[in-house]
Amino acid sequence: KRHVLDVEGWSREEILMLMEQARHMEDLMGRPIKKVPALRGKLAVNLFFENSTRTRVSFELAEKMLSADVVNWSSSGSSAAKGETLRDTAWTLEAMGADIVVIRHGAVGAAQYLAKKLKRAVVMNAGDGAHAHPTQCLLDLYTAWKHLGDLEGRKVAIVGDVEHSRVARSDVIGFKTMGCQVVLSGPSTLMPHQIGHLNVTYERDVRKALEGAHVIYLLRIQRERQRDGLFPSIDEYHRFWGATEELISSFSRDVLVMHPGPINRGVEIESSVADGENSVILEQVRSGVAVRMALLYLCAGGAA
Ligand code: CP
After folding, report:
1. Which range marks the domain in which residue 138 is found?
2. Is residue 4 a part of any domain in this protein?
3. CATH number for the domain including 77?
4. Smallest Cα–Cα separation from 252: which of 283, 210, 282?
5. Are residues 144 and 233 in the same domain?
6. What is the chain's Cα-based Rg?
7. Which of 67, 81, 148, 295 could form a disulfide with 40 if both were Cys (CB 3.0 to 4.6 A apart)?
């Protein structure tokens, strides 16, 4: 049994093996393959304490494609709203036969905590606070790998609200593990206080950060996690760091524009860029199903 809690600790070889497995989960058009019986008889519970569209739906699709029985649980309308603890909620669901628990929670470490408390279920972290979003990272690596092949030596510019982003933290680790050079850009107020341990560079000027980049990874400005009055305003952000057509077209014609979604059109990304020919944003979404199928198969399938 192997939980998926963080990409920290995954080797390059393990990530490549996962990507090869994900490729088997897609047809030649990049669509998920037809249903297979790999998880027949297993019960997957998707435990979402925070909102989600992409992660929740793609986990559900992946579980169903692998023939698992699926229960979707959300905190609103559950006994968590009456004060039941995370541990008791998870034990209750495990007592009803859960083999796989996918959890998204606002608290850092929630998935790790469940992995310790549950006796037999495999735990998949679908995002814990501003800490980690490993499955998003793996689908991002898979999308970039499908376009660029070997990622060794590629330059990845991550632009935006790094401070509040669990995706940024996981993607920095993931792209670095694959041998990429990673540069962060955005207002200094939206950068983590210390980035030295991340082994990346910070370039405030987005034009300098994007020079020579193979991947431009844009992050959502997480207004819900910011206190009022912080610099910059949304208008200022868009003016200095927003991905406009003019900005993107001044770099390589082949640069990949990525974003984990949901996007704020007109803030960190202009619609013409989000929907433009360099954008692989919807491909990321589609890759999410194959990558999550691969993870579920490897971690909770018959061979696990
Ligand atoms: N990228 C991502 O986690 O999107 P959702 O919040 O819609 O799941």
Report:
1. 134-281
2. no
3. 3.40.50.1370
4. 210
5. yes
6. 19
7. 67
pLDDT tens-digit map of 225-237 = 666 556 688 889 9
Handedness of CA 219, 223, 226, 232 (dihedral sign): positive
Atom of ligand 1 nearest to the CA of 57: 8
For the Cβ of 50 lying below 6 angstroms from any atom of ligand 1, the answer is: no
Residue 53 Cβ < 6 Å to ligand 1:
yes
Ligand 1 pocket residue status of 261, Cβ below 6 Å: yes
Residues 98 and 56 in one domain: yes
CB of 212 sitting under 6 A from ligand 1: no
User: Residue 139 carries which side chain, given as an amino acid letter?
Assistant: L
- Separation of 103 CA from ligand 1 center, angstroms? 13
Looking at residue 232, its pLDDT comes to 81
Answer whether 216's CB lies under 8 Å from 255's CB. Answer: yes
Distance (Å) from CA 234 to ligand 1 centroid: 21
In a domain, 1, yes or no: no
Has residue 6 been placed in a domain? no
The number of the ligand 1 atom at minimal distance from the alpha carbon of 53 is 7
Whether residues 120 and 250 fall in one domain: no
Cα–Cα dist 150/153, whole Å? 9
For the chain, the average pLDDT equals 93
Task: Tell me how many domains the chain contains.
Answer: 2
Residues 230 and 123 in one domain: no
Ligand 1 centroid to 230 CA: how many Å? 24
Same-domain status, 18 and 117: yes
d(CA 247, CA 187) in angstroms, rounded, equals: 17
Report pLDDT digits (tens) over 255-274: 999 999 999 999 999 999 99
Residues 156 and 266 in one domain: yes
Ligand 1 atom closest to residue 50's alpha carbon, by position in its atom list: 6
ipTM above 0.90, yes or no: yes
pTM of the model: 0.95
Residues 294 and 187 in one domain: no
164: helix, coil or strand? coil
